[in-house]
Design brief:
By secondary structure, the protein is mainly alpha-helical.
Length: 42
Amino acid sequence: MRADIVWWDLSASGQTIESMREYLREESVAAFSEVPGLRFKM
């Protein structure tokens, strides 16, 4: 079993929560759907 925890600190970047949501919808979901054995991601 493997668990990865990611913490985003947006304070020093030009990103917003909405821009991160857009990235997740547009790019990240498709990329993670290709990960063999991945059963759950939230």
